[in-house]
Design a protein that fits this description.
Elements (H helix, E strand, L loop, with lengths): L2 E4 H14 L4 E4 L7 H12 L4 E5 L6 H8 L4 E5 L7 E4 L2 E5 L5 H6 L3 E6 L3 H20 L1 E2 L8 H9 L22 E3 H8 L3 H10 L3 E4 L2 E4 L1 H5 L3 E5 L2 E7 L2 H5 L1
Parallel strand pairs: 2-3, 3-4
Antiparallel strand pairs: 1-7, 2-5, 4-8, 5-6, 6-7, 9-13, 10-11, 12-13
Length: 250
């Protein structure tokens, strides 16, 4: 049957829940602030190629936090503006709690939570009922992606995996300086191409479109001349690349 958890118990069970996830992992919390332990566990899930769904509800996001999450290829972020629930679950367990996932809550607040185990017959109906709500929240949330990647990216995936020296077959027409095609963020591009954000940034830096300034990526004059722009998104400024960069990457 369901188990009552105090603060330290919630922390331990949530970390175990993330560690043990094999089929599904959902993190639902209005505030997206992660402790160092949770960051390490998410990095472990990345190495295991375990898909993670994170649903948040507050827009006051730390750029460093967002940058970390967007660097993880197997993490998908969703925004639900009316979200106030805190729920963490994998395919076997679910924790409904008052606790956020950062150190202050874990170390200074007095929190309460309930552990529900799907394999326990007495808990199964509760788990399934809650899961239906989680599924509804996800379906009504906004997928956190600045732009939709162009269809041509699917054709490029195979080109990126070819041995060095292979001649790409795809040709994407270059546009003029008055480019009016699609733009996309580095995050959406890296996920669609199946490469890490770090590798993609390296490729774009080698093209001399971007450079590091004060530990942040900045557009070079060449990047601007190629059509890249700084755009304002819901969560801050970001570099938007025209689809013509695909040809240069490959």
């Amino acid at each position: 049957m369901a188990k009552y958890l105090r603060t330290s118990g919630i922390t331990a069970e949530v970390e175990g829940l993330i560690r043990e996830a094999r089929e599904r992992l959902y993190i639902i919390s209005p505030y997206l602030k992660l402790s160092d332990n949770i960051r390490e566990l998410l990095n472990d899930k990345e190495r295991e190629k375990q898909e993670v769904r994170i649903i948040f509800g507050k827009q006051e996001l730390n750029p460093t936090e967002m940058s970390f999450l967007q660097s993880l290829k197997y993490v998908r972020l969703y925004f639900s503006k009316n979200l106030h629930a805190k729920c963490y679950l994998n395919e076997k367990k679910m924790i409904i709690s008052s606790m956020n996932l950062y150190e202050f809550s874990q170390q200074h607040n007095r929190e309460m939570g309930i552990l529900i185990e799907r394999e326990n017959e007495a808990d199964r109906e509760v788990y399934e009922d809650a899961w239906k709500d989680v599924d509804s929240i996800l379906n009504n949330a906004t997928d956190f992606s600045y732009v939709e990647a162009p269809k041509e990216i699917d054709k490029v995936k195979s080109e990126l995996t070819k041995p060095v020296g292979s001649k790409p077959e795809i040709v994407i027409p270059l546009k003029t300086s008055s480019y009016d095609g699609k733009y996309f963020s580095a995050t959406s591009l890296s996920k669609e191409l199946g490469i890490s954000s770090k590798d993609l940034s390296y490729k774009i830096e080698k093209l001399k479109w971007i450079e590091k300034k004060n530990e942040e990526w900045a557009l070079t004059s060449l990047g601007k001349s190629k059509g890249a722009q700084i755009k304002k998104g819901q969560y801050g400024d970001y570099i938007a690349y025209p689809e013509t960069i695909i040809r240069e990457i490959i």
